[in-house]
Amino acid sequence: MTLRAILGWGLLAGLALGMAGCATTPVAPPPPPIVVKLPPPPPPMPIGGYLGMKIPPKLANGTYGTPNINNTDAAAVWHLRNALNVAALGCDRAGGGVVQPYNTWITTHAAVLDHVLQTYLKEWQAPGWADWRRVYDDNQTRIYNFYSQPTMRLEFCAVARLEIAQVGQVTDADLPTFARAALLRLDKPFVAFYAAFDTWRDHYKPAQAVAGTADTPVAAPAPAPVVTLDGTGGGTPPSVPTPDAAPVAVATPAPSVTTSATAPVAGAETPVAKAP
Q1: Which residues are 64's β-sheet partners?
Q2: Can you give the pLDDT at residue 61?
Q3: CA–CA separation, 206 vs 9, rounded Å?
Q4: Long-range CB contacts (< 8 A, 24+ apart) of 272-276?
Q5: pLDDT digits (tens, 9 = 90+) for 130-167
Q6: 272 and 233 in contact (C-beta within 8 Å)?
Q7: Of these four, 81, 133, 153, 231, which has the most CB atoms within 10 Å of its CB?
Q8: Nearest to 176 by CA among 69, 253, 75
Q9: What share of the chain in percent tops pLDDT 90?
């Protein structure tokens, strides 16, 4: 073999080894993309809320106090009647479909509603409190004020319209069961608002504490008209809770125990006049 051939084979061998080395050399992977984790947006203030607003405290079960805790059958039915009465007086302009079915219900079921009222009053009177009528009247005022809160009016009216459409089809025997379920549905807008406000307040509580504004009083929005206890919508309206007197759950008397109150509500089955 000539020198030229030897050099040629050596060159080929070197090139082969070089190519083999290049083929096995690992290539560094590209760097991973940089992921920027943005913090979640702060919770919004619920519509109608304001700094310094007072709401009922959260209960041990995670919900909030309403006037419909531990109700008797009579209390559940009468509280439903009160809630729907507020809707008939305040919701008909927001879409209609409230006054007529409400009036039909209280007139065609007047006997059972009167029986419920008399039972409810006896429950309040049973403990023998000398001022049971006054306490009962205060409780009724709280119920009306609770359902008349302007902040939750649109949501409340939407639910109340559905309940009024159904209650007229419920038999007298099934009315207590229906009332308990309906009150839970009617209370949902209020409980949801309280939960949203608590979430907002808890998020900003440290900053408020530093700024010293956690308890700064702020004027509440003007309350909406509140119905009277006689179900007619006339007369002097009961007082509406201010920011320093938030709606508080009022437990009605247990089935075998009753607490105080006021005389029977006059005109309990008086139809509501349709708004002009």
Answers
A1: 58
A2: 87
A3: 81
A4: 272/85, 272/88, 272/89, 272/99, 272/102, 272/103, 272/231, 272/232, 272/233, 273/99, 273/232, 273/233, 274/92, 274/99, 274/100, 275/92, 275/93, 275/99
A5: 999 999 999 999 999 999 999 999 999 999 999 999 99
A6: yes
A7: 81
A8: 75
A9: 43
Which residues on adjacent β-strands are paired with residue 58?
A: 64
Question: Taking a C-beta distance cutoff of 8 angstroms, is the pair 156, 188 a contact?
Answer: no
Q: Minimal CA–CA distance to 151: which of 41, 274, 241?
A: 241
Q: Which position has the higher pLDDT, 7 or 184?
A: 184
CA dist 106 and 126 (Å) reads 27
State the Cα torsion 72-79-156-104 to the nearest 10°: 120
Task: Tell me the pLDDT tens digit for each residue of 75-89.
Answer: 999 999 999 999 999
Contact between 91 and 157 under an 8 Å Cβ cutoff? The reply is yes
